[in-house]
Specification:
Layout (H helix, E strand, L loop, with lengths): L6 E3 L6 E3 H5 L4 H22 L2 H25 L20 H4 L4
Antiparallel strand pairs: 1-2
Helix pairs in contact: 2-3
């Protein structure tokens, strides 16, 4: 009996991806957001039920959850907006630049 791996290679990029992430059509940054949100929800449920020892443990582990969230979004997140041109220093996608006017 052979064990199936928990991840499969995704072709040319050589980065192993979890098989069920492809099935759910999620990337790793979406998984990090979902898992940290569920952690927060679980923390709030435990806090309301009165299990204060478990609440303190979850509270002390929460910085690691936050660091995992930030790392995953910065490492695997994808920007889907429009890029700024060379002469632009800032920008909003929903506001026309000419309609803003100038100050001074």
């Amino acid at each position: 009996m052979t064990n199936k791996p928990i991840y499969r290679s995704s072709g040319n990029n050589r980065r192993p991806e979890l098989f069920w992430l492809k099935t759910l059509n999620m990337n790793r940054s979406s998984l990090a957001v979902l898992s940290s949100s569920l952690y927060l929800l679980f923390f709030l449920v435990v806090l309301q039920t009165g299990y204060y020892h478990l609440t303190w443990i979850l509270f002390l582990l929460s910085p690691f959850v936050l660091l995992y969230l930030v790392y995953s979004v910065l490492r695997y997140g994808e920007f889907r907006g429009t890029e700024l041109t060379e002469d632009e220093e800032w920008g909003y996608e929903d506001v026309d630049r000419e309609g803003l006017g100038t100050w001074g």
